[in-house]
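REVIEWER CHECKLIST
Item 1: Sequence provided? yes
Item 2: Single chain? yes
Item 3: Sequence as submitted:
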Amino acid sequence: MILFRSLTIGLLGACVLLLVKLLARSPVPVRPPVPASAAIQGLEGVPTIIDVSPAIRAADLPALVPLANGEHVLAVGDRSVFSDLSAGAEIARSGLTSGQYLDLTVGNGVITRRVLVLMH
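Item 4: Structure as written out by the authors:
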């Protein structure tokens, strides 16, 4: 009987110590998300690749393209666009399906870069 009580108290003490160690861990620091403009700086000439699920509608594609302050879509594929509205309409009109891609030229007048939107 004394042996059983000793084992029970020992196991209970081990469980309490384990819980104290688990709860005493310092929390993992959470990094704030990097703004799109900060992520794009210094990426001159480096293409951005966006991998898109087929569940995304074509009308939602323009919202997925990260643009820095002052940047605009200059061309969709081989067609030049002259406003943000026509760029969004052209991207939505592209009708991407599974296995296709969309090539965008993005720039701010000084620096241009490429954005490739891949549809699974």
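Item 5: Key structural point noted by reviewer: The mean pLDDT is 81.
Item 6: Recommendation: ____
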